[in-house]
Predict the 3D structure of the following.
Amino acid sequence: MNIDSIKNGIVIDHIPAGRGMKLYELLGLGKLDCPVAIIKNAASSQMGRKDIIKIDADIEVNLDIIGYVAPNVTINIIRDGVLCEKKSIGLPQILTNVIKCRNPRCITSTEQELAHVFRLENAEKRIYRCVYCETKASSEAE
Amino acid sequence: MRSIINILDLSVEEIDELISVANDIIVHPGNYSERCRGKKLATLFFEPSTRTRLSFEAAMYELGGNVIGFSEAQSSSAAKGESVADTVRTISCYADIIAMRHPKEGAPLVASLNATVPVINAGDGGHFHPTQTLADLLTIQREKGSFENLTVGFCGDLKFGRTVHSLIGALSRYKGLKVILISPVELKLPSYVKSEILAPAGIEYVQTTNLEEVMPELDILYMTRVQRERFFNEEDYLRLKDSYILTPAKLKNAKEDLAIMHPLPRVNEISVEIDKDPRACYFKQVLNGKYIRMALILKLLQEAGTI
């Protein structure tokens, strides 16, 4: 893949340097059979250094995961080699099956099929709490 | 479908209304004795309980209704691995309202998301216990006449004591509250209760390890048990269980109209000699718990259009 230009796909830009691999893992990009590129520590006029992920396929990505790991990223949707949509993402209000509740007393610890759902409590401090037991999410995305 | 999982699911106005209905039930029980005729309450208790389960059952019987259910997980299909969601979907076919206790935090919320009848949280682990809080509020209202300008001391296990967290949350909505937190260092009130409930409501609070020192200030002393079932480590439990034992000597400097409360069961944290003291309110709380549960069952069944 020519990482400078993709025909149909997604470019996740302005990922804080060092978070690209975490995002790659949480999005499950390793399971895709299309070309995926991670550019680490690219120069950025806004951020100094940034990571970029390019996916050479028109797939659905989980915006909640992206918003949780890197709320200030830009998502560029490329179709026929042309930038057709540019999205900014903030912290999602609800996270479903993005992170797991670590409280051994939580109902999610025994009922395996239950979705792990967290609600954003404080955007400034990035505090999420489990909707079932109210335990604060450990910041595994950091 | 309206369910009650957290005391904060009820507005101040709704709590006032429930207290008003409960007070009316106390005065005119005959007016309510047929209100739930032909209706069924399911008590789903996945964890042992004496007071709460029997209180719900007595409440439903006194409303003229019937009760089905189980009192331990071993006598339900949970023992075979059935999920909470499937259990309540099934029970919704048999009952008009559910009261659920479960050792896992959040289980009643899961139940409410899957049931087709109202669910009342009757205690989920160390998390919420809204009907205990309603019983506490009815007791405070009947003993003090109002919720405003009270100094309330919470003593004992403030870390795992779900009744304490719920009552602080409920009282934080009234004016002039002062909270005194009396506990061993290891069982202090969790910081999130302070930062998310006390601080935003601008409530004055003091933390201490010395009960006698703060006794003269208190309008209400809310004692709690150090709960063995909340500890993973038996050694920690044994070390902390006798931290505070209320005796007549410790009440020497207490106010004449102090209200001594306890969610029960007690182990030894209130000496039995205190039971004769007119300031002891913990058995009144038990009775009030039945009346407020009657009021709550009525409210939820009315809102569901069942009665």
